[in-house]
């Protein structure tokens, strides 16, 4: 792994991520609403509940919330949700959807590596397909550890996307069918930039989490088989993992 501490490089990565997701925000939000109204809702909720404390009213931070999928899923279960995302357009879509669904959650434009909250603010942090895009994952995990209350839990769903195999053929109704060639090119370029500054995951995550002070780390590399048990419009062909850890 190449060590990169160049602020300008890190900012460049974040700008590329923001530009990519700004271009996809509206269509992405449509997909997430469909997902909330499908069998996927129950599958994701079941996976989350394996790790979250079994009580109502948890203060939960959704990092890289996108248009709010995890926020709406968990707020509907009686929890207090805050979602952050680097992309303003995503946050605007999340706020609109919150009003439409009548499910309250607070949404802010923030950098996942530097969330602007006081230490020990949350009972849980959840995140999905975000950590792989962070140019300084070690820094992020250290900050997330500080944000959790003692005994709090991080639940991270992700994949080693910068090392994923070539995309397989997907159904015509799949969400990626609407991605333009320009967007595909931007995604592939991002992968080539992130690959040299990371190690193979999730083994790398386990190491970084331990260094950040997390304990009771649980790794599940079969979660994708349960979530994506059939090839439909929501299917993710890249193997994903869950890594959960306590403060």
Question: What can you see in these coordinates?
Answer:
- It is built from eight helices and seven strands, in the order ααβαβαββαβααβαβ.
- The chain has helices spanning 7-36, 40-49, 69-75, 88-101, 137-147, 181-194, 203-212, 223-227; strands spanning 59-63, 80-85, 106-109, 122-128, 148-159, 215-220, 240-246.
- A seven-stranded mixed beta sheet has the order 3-2-1-4-5-7-6, sandwiched between helices.
- The longest helix has 30 residues, at 7-36.
- It is globular, with a radius of gyration of 17 Å.
- The two termini are 27 Å apart.
- The mean pLDDT is 93.
- Keywords: Methyltransferase, Transferase.
- InterPro entries: Methyltranfer_dom, SAM-dependent_MTases_sf.
- GO terms for molecular function: methyltransferase activity.
- It comes from Lacrimispora amygdalina.
In brief:
The chain is an alpha/beta fold.
Labels describing this entry:
7 strands, Rossmann fold, 8 helices, alpha/beta, 19% strand, seven-stranded mixed beta sheet, 247 residues, single chain
N-to-C CA distance? 27 Å
Helix/strand structural class: alpha/beta
Count of individual helical segments: 8
Strand content: 15-25%
CATH class call: Alpha Beta
CATH topology tier name: Rossmann fold
Known CATH architecture: 3-Layer(aba) Sandwich
- How many domains would you count in the coordinates? 1
Succession of helices and strands = HHEHEHEEHEHHEHE
Mean pLDDT rating: 93
Strand order of the largest sheet: 3-2-1-4-5-7-6
Specify the CATH homologous superfamily: Vaccinia Virus protein VP39
- Rg value: 17 Å
Largest sheet: 7 strands, mixed
Q: Name the shape in a single word.
A: globular
Low-confidence parts lasting 5 or more residues at pLDDT below 50? none
Counted beta strands? 7
Helix content: 40-55%
Protein name: SAM-dependent methyltransferase
Keywords: Methyltransferase, Transferase
Pfam families: Methyltransf_31
InterPro entries: Methyltranfer_dom, SAM-dependent_MTases_sf
